[in-house]
Amino acid sequence: MADTTWLTLAPAFLLGLTGLLVLYVDSIGRSTKGPIAVLSLLGSLAVAGVAIALPDALGLGPAGWSFVSFTLLGMFALALFVQPGSQNRRLIAGLSTAGAVGALGVAAAFLFTFDGEPVNPFGDALVVDGMSLLFAVIVASVTAMVTVASYNYIAEHSYQAEYYALVLLAGTGMTLMASANSLVTVFVALELASLPSYALVAFLKENKGSVEAGLKYFLVGALSSAVFAYGVSLVYGATGSLQLTAVQNAITGEFTGMLGMGVVMVVGGIAFKTASVPFHFWAPEAYEGAPAPISAFLSSASKAAGFVIAFRVFTEAFLQVSESAGEFLVLGADWVLVFQILAVVTMTLGNLAAVTQDKVKRMLAYSSVGHAGYVLMSLAALSGGGATATAKIEAGQFVLAGGMMHLFVYGFMNTGAFLFIALAEYWDVGRTFEDFTGLGRQAPVASVAMTVFMFSLAGLPPFGGFLSKYLLFGATVNSGFVWLAAVAIVNSAVSLYYYSKLVKALWFDERPDDKKPLEISSRPVGLYAAVIFAAVVTTAMYGVFGPVSDAAIEAAAALL
Amino acid sequence: MAGELAFDIAPAIVALPFASFLAVLALGNYMPKKGASAGIAATAGSLVLSLFALVTVAGGSTYQQDLFTWSGAEEVPLHFGIFIDPLSAMMLVIVSLIALLVHVFSLGYMNDEGETGLPRYYSELGLFTFSMLAFVMADNLLMAFMFFELVGLCSYLLIGFWFREDGPASAAKKAFLVTRFGDYFFLIGTVGIVATFGTSRFVSTESHTAFPVLAEEALAEGGHGVTTFLGFGPEAWFSIIGLLVLGGVIGKSAQFPLHTWLPDAMEGPTPVSALIHAATMVAAGVYLVARMYGFYALLPTVLAIIALTGGFTALFAATMGVVKREIKQVLAYSTISQYGYMMLALGGGGYVAATFHLMTHAFFKALLFLGAGSVIIAMHHNEDMWDMGGLKNKMPVTYYTFLAGSLALAGIVPFAGFWSKDEVLYEVLVHGLGSAGTTGTILLVAYAMGLVAVLFTGFYTFRMVFLTFHGEPRTETARDPEPVRWNVKLPLVVLGALATVAGVVNMVPVEKVLGIKGIDYLHQFLDPETELVSNLTAHHYEEVLHDVSGYTADATAFGSESTTVLISAGLSLGLALVGVGLAYALYGRSPTPEEHTDKLGGLKTLWYNNYYQDEYQVWLASGLTLPLAKLADRFDQGIIDGAVNGVGRTSLTGGSYVKRIQTGIVTNYAALLALGLVALLLIVGVTGGWFA
User: Fold this and answer.
1) How many CB pairs under 8 A join A and B?
2) Given an 8 Å threshold on Cβ–Cβ distance, is A265 in contact with B677?
């Protein structure tokens, strides 16, 4: 029987293929239409001929050859029917959204039918398990919301197909990050996610801020990638393996310093992706300069993908779990200590910086750094305590699951918040808190949604953010890290200040006299739909929190 | 059990007034009579259904149903549920009947007088009726507490109906605060009961046991199966939580020392006084004790306190009623005093007597308030009795119904109040005589206070009647009072009839003296023989009182039982007649009575100023609580807010420093990033011993 395990990567494939399809559709222009049609038709016929004549060539088999042939035939059909020119804007956005939603549907269906047995498509370099599916759901949801919102946001810009294709390809990379099971696939997936992101941040070519942000993001990213690649090479040098489990097995106690340096540098590479201090410098600039939907995409999906790598690499390669003794044996270097430092520094610095911002988008950027700090706790508190061996292991699982759940909820509330900023940019409202005054009266529905996001980010009931923060902080306490949870709670309290500052501006503050009156002429459907959807999910999290957190706990249990 | 139609539709008893509340709230201005019709229809519906339930209960069934578990904690589920047994069915009928009559009366008192804000008035009445009925139906203490609070809120809203005037607004606040003070203890008591027994159910079901039963078992087995706190034994601990719950009772039923809100509450519209501050809400406290009597019956100390509080309040409030000038003030103190009797009965082991008096009092006191309301309409809202006089001939319906109510209140045979008050006193007397030791003494002391109060009751009641209706009119308005319509007279007539004859449901003295068996209908009614409520029956309470609390009834202290009955009844009737006669001598004989109370001198001043209760309570608030609160505030401002502000300031300052790191120059970022990495490597290296 043919090997069908590659099908488990369907979410990633769907995103990637949709990206390619979008590019293809865009390439059908007035002048290229004829040649493309002829070429694809000829190609299709030729492949069909090969299928009949040499069915076993290249090992594809008759089914494989017919698939290629029909794909080419479909491309021919598309070339015939697609109207060249600006009309296909809607088609491209629609295709992208359909691809993202399809990936979301498939990932969600896989997640809820997942039987607990991890699958390794293409050897051990990739793995599909509960955690990778959960994060595929997160990434695909964010991608879908971003593509829907972008329909209005980039309406006036050229190179739209490239934009959507880059979003989808970055999404592919992030989904693959969730499945990467070897340091080299981790690196490749990470770059696949990063490179499109650099271009996306700089997408607003006419905007100096956007271009500058893209460049800075790229430079810091290059440096971090170098650090990461160097770390990987050191680990490889010390263990002779790249596959995560193999690395764990190969750690013997030799080359302590070299392995340790490698581990810390791997932390560095991941810290870049998750925007953790001190690798966060790009984040405020990139989030502020980028088109707001891209900020949403990077701060939610990209961050989640960074964390899924952290969760997998450090629990699979650099941690030995002794079920009987209830012990977590930290390998390589004391990375738990590193994450403790990073968690405290990241959340504190992110929140402190957010407090003093007077531009809303930048405040959200720093808040995103702060939230990375909270999630870092799930690795920082991993080696925690419990009364019995089982309780110790369970405490570790809970805290890890808490991090996953917070990323899940964060995927909606933070994306929604940035998309609200996208809406404000679309309306040309302005950037500062003062510019947002009185928006509640002008755009009540969107402002209610933003209020939901702010309160949820601050962790107030009855919104999703409360539940996930409660789970995460509670699990941290449960692991014996009361001090860490206390730091997080103080930070959370500080964050309430700047979140509610925006709510106050939206609803209560008088608009300063020197500000021009708000004029909101249109209600962009795509942006509204995405924002409202995110708000509804954030509010309705109570309904789905149970099953999703069960999935997260199972995923964490599979890792530990 | 289930399947009885009356029980299946029982939730509608509560739902109808709630629907009326919502409808009137939303659409009151567009409804006929500004929402009164909806209220009347809803309460009439509730009354019919309640009567149906009462008849079904009288047929020997009871009903308990969990409706909704709102806190799903597995060990201690908290739920809403319905419980209909004789006691609650009787109370349902009383509440819905009075509510209906008060709605009708309000047509005359509010609509005809051209008041504004009527939709608010009727929606609040609807909310009150809903809450009160739900309180009565509650099958657990926590649910009861919630609706207890809700009726308190409605009371606040309705006392302050004319909130633009100073008096009602401040009276409403006072009522709310004073009753809340009691409820605070009630809440702790409720939590205590849930924590101790793991449930607050009044009634045992197939799968759960009621907390009074658990308490009984725990006492029998030396504290097994319950959790006590603070190192107390079960008996002491149960007494503590019993007293805590009693705090709410004392506040709501206006018992000493938390009675001070009730006279002020007379600032509210008179129909509200009749409904809330005479017949129903004030009864909630007494009803609550009766509802969980199985628990209180286990606690002799608490019972003694209840009896003493009741007896003292009865006497204490009656004395103040003697000197009041305003008709509603007299009635307010009389209400406090009468609830004192009910508490006395409960403390003295007379469960049925208390319930009986609760019922008759609801009728005759609602009647008196509505009668006073009628007089107030006639007098153009002048309430001073010294401005009245001679109204007898001008408003005969009001006069005769009011007279019936007064005779009942004074306890003159054969009006309803006589039978119930007599039974209260009789029960306390026989238990006092029969019980040994301190219990007996305390009960006899409480009995003595209750007995003396009878004299005062007769006096102030008829002083009120004579001043209002007899003699010469003392003012122009009294000479030419405003006529009242059918909507005022009808409720008066209904209640007048009930106040006259309601006593027949429980003519125990007649039964005992003449030996006619089986006319103690209320006794039989409250002593049903169904499985569900076997722990909630009058004879079970009697047994528990005897076995656990050492209460023994001795009816033969003066020879035979009928002698005792006759002596007791004769004493109370005689004293009541003396009081009435005194009132007649002082105020009824002369057509132009003088203010004889002035002759009391210092005593009058003391009584007129309500024993300076308000003054010391105000002092407690301003002289003691305020400085304490200021101290707490200083702590809050200094330490707590200081810490919070400190965090805020630190984060703002810290934030501006952090901001400076973000220079915008990418080479700086690269440098900082690299330095950060080196720092991390150093930390890990040093702690990991790489350089060792």
Assistant:
1) 91
2) yes
- State the DSSP string of A419-477: HHHHHHHHHT--SBTGGGTTHHHHSHHHHHHHHHHHHHHHT-TTSHHHHHHHHHHHHHH
Best of A494, A495, A497, A501 to mutate (most B CBs within 10 Å, chain B): A494
Q: With pLDDT > 90 as the criterion, what percentage of chain B qualifies?
A: 7
**Cβ B652–A355 below 8 Å, yes or no?**
yes
Complete DSSP assignment for B474-521: -SHHHHSPPP--HHHHHHHHHHHHHHHHGGGGG-HHHHHHH--TT--H
Q: What is the pLDDT of residues B599-647, one digit of tens each?
A: 777 777 777 777 777 777 778 878 888 888 888 888 888 887 888 788 7
In a domain, A253, yes or no: no
Best residue in B645, B653, B672, B680 for a mutation probing chain A (most A CBs within 10 Å):
B680
pTM of the full predicted structure? 0.66
Residue A359 has pLDDT above 80, yes or no: yes
CA distance A277 to chain B (A): 8
Question: How much is the ipTM here?
Answer: 0.88
Tell whether A396 is covered by a domain.
yes
A257 in contact with B at a CB cutoff of 8 Å? yes
DSSP per residue, A92-114: HHHHHHHHHHHHHHHHHHHHHH-
Cβ contact (<8 Å) for B655 and A352?
yes
- Cross-strand partners of B63: B84
Helix axes A130-153, A303-312, angle to 10 degrees: 170
To the nearest whole Å, the CA of B675 is away from the closest chain A CA by 9
DSSP letter at B138 equals B
Q: Do A494 and B648 touch (CB under 8 A)?
A: yes
Q: Using CB atoms, which residue from A277, A282, A341 is nearest to B683?
A: A341
Beta carbons of B136 and B279 less than 8 angstroms apart: no
Q: How many domains does chain A have?
A: 1
**CB–CB of B688 and A334 under 8 A?**
yes
- Which amino acid type is present at position B46? S
Is A76 in contact with A41 (CB distance < 8 Å)? Answer: yes
As a whole number of angstroms, the distance between CA B182 and CA B177 comes to 9
- Asked if residue A451 is part of any domain, the answer here is yes
The DSSP letter of residue B638 is I
A223–chain B Cβ distance below 8 A for any pair: yes
- Residue A108 falls within a domain, yes or no? no
Residues of B with Cβ-Cβ distance to A281 under 8 angstroms? 662, 669, 672-673
Q: Domain limits at A458?
A: 341-560
C-alpha to C-alpha distance for A203 and A293, rounded to whole angstroms: 11
Which of B331, B590, B649, B599 is CA-nearest to residue B466?
A: B590
CA distances from B621 to A356, B168, B176, B181 (A): 44, 20, 14, 11
